[in-house]
Design goal:
About 50% of the residues lie in helices and about 15% in strands. The chain has about 375 residues and is an alpha+beta fold. The strands form three sheets. A four-stranded mixed β-sheet has the order 1-4-5-8, with helices on one face. The protein has a four-stranded antiparallel β-sheet with strand order 2-3-7-6, with no helix packed on it. A two-stranded antiparallel sheet has the order 9-10. The two termini are about 25 Å apart.
Length: about 375
């Protein structure tokens, strides 16, 4: 497996870098936060991303997409992560697009995929029910009634949940909490009767929601994939999401590291640049080495997904574990080396610490994935 990008993937990465630098620098994120924007992402910016074809990266050409693969969308995520670009890219162009492309019926694909490509709709994946990520512990119920299902329960920490038009919801149709069997995925309109969305205020100032379903009636035709096979299906979707999120976290860490290096070259203490202090040089060298290791693990996971590797689950957990640990280290060191000003709102570096603490938890922390990796490996 080559740990490099091909020409098309590198082109996407370069395009994303130019776009993020010019259109969505950190000041763009800051302005959305300060304006108390209810979406916490800009519709015009999102439409520009759509026009570039990013919403259709994982969607086949027959539905208007480009089918450039996980490596393509992850490369874009990495560059957007460097400037903390807020958008529905992850929840819609990664999670929603992959889920419907891979597991949707022909009718579902024909109905929804062109709308994702055009930017007409956004999606969100509603999985977690507690602060500890574990899809098998789903208690959210879906009860069969004639040709319909009645959904009841609560989903928490839904990424882009407060703005999504379409919700992909994991529900238990049989069995008990903790069992990986008996789970089914449903496609639910966010404005359906009985759906109550509660917007969350998180440290990283992004779009999240808790969503309550009060006896929401959904047709059996809105089942995504096969009934009772949602456990395996959702893990496939989550692994692609974990890889893309790992790429974004790598971008977060790279940007925080560059900000810190610049500061070490400018800040003087005792009449000399602090970058000349050997102790700080050692700490910077450690961050550099960890970033290089993270790049390798993320690229391996990207290519593993596109090559349908038998090791995809392990590669996804490895990438999420290492990117989480690296971002945690780099964001901490960035604040420490900046000193007290690092946590002031005037400096951008503090945003990366806040983003790190939230991103680390999305679809499983490093602890969750190190344990998953060990279990998959047979330890």
């Amino acid at each position: 497996m080559k740990l490099i990008l091909n020409e098309e993937q590198q082109f996407l990465k370069d395009t994303a870098k130019s776009f993020a630098t010019e259109k969505t620098p950190v000041n763009h994120f800051r302005s959305l936060r300060d304006s108390n924007d209810h979406l916490l992402w800009d519709k015009e910016i999102w439409q520009e991303m759509v026009n570039l074809g990013w919403s259709g990266i994982l969607i086949p050409e027959e539905f208007g997409g480009s089918n450039f693969g996980v490596a393509g969308i992850s490369s874009i995520m990495q560059e957007c992560g460097k400037t903390l670009t807020p958008s529905p890219l992850f929840a819609t162009a990664v999670l929603g697009a992959f889920a419907i492309t891979q597991f949707g019926s022909q009718a579902q694909k024909e109905e929804l995929l062109p709308k994702i490509v055009s930017g007409e709709i956004t999606t969100a994946l509603a999985i977690d029910e507690s602060s500890h990520h574990n899809p098998a512990k789903t208690e959210f119920s879906a009860t069969s009634k004639d040709n319909d299902y009645v959904l009841s329960g609560k989903k928490i920490f839904v990424v882009d949940g407060s703005s999504a038009d379409i919700l992909i919801v994991l529900a238990r149709t049989s069995g008990n909490s903790g069992e990986e069997t008996g789970l089914t995925l449903f496609i639910v309109e966010s404005d359906a009767d009985g759906v109550d969305t509660i917007k969350l205020s998180m440290a990283d100032s992004r779009n999240y929601a808790n969503i309550i379903f009060n006896d929401v009636t959904v047709s059996s035709e809105r089942i995504l994939g096969s009934p009772e096979s949602g456990g395996e299906t959702v893990e496939s979707i989550l692994d692609i999401g974990r890889i893309a999120m790992s790429a974004e976290m790598l971008g977060n860490a790279e940007a925080a590291f560059e900000l810190t290096l610049d500061y070490l070259k400018q800040r003087k203490q005792f009449g000399v640049l602090i970058g000349t202090f050997q102790a700080l040089q050692h700490r910077a060298a450690e961050m550099f080495c960890e970033l290089e290791l993270t790049k390798s693990s993320v690229i391996a996971a990207m290519h593993g997904a596109d090559e349908n590797s038998n090791e995809l689950q392990r590669l996804a957990s490895l990438a999420k574990t290492i990117s989480g640990e690296t971002l945690h280290l780099v964001s901490n060191e960035a604040i420490q080396m900046h000193g007290g000003i690092g946590v002031t709102d005037e400096y951008d570096v503090g945003f990366y610490l806040k983003r790190a603490r939230v991103a680390e938890q999305i679809f499983g922390s490093s602890k969750f994935h190190s344990e998953r990796y060990a279990n998959l490996t047979g330890f």
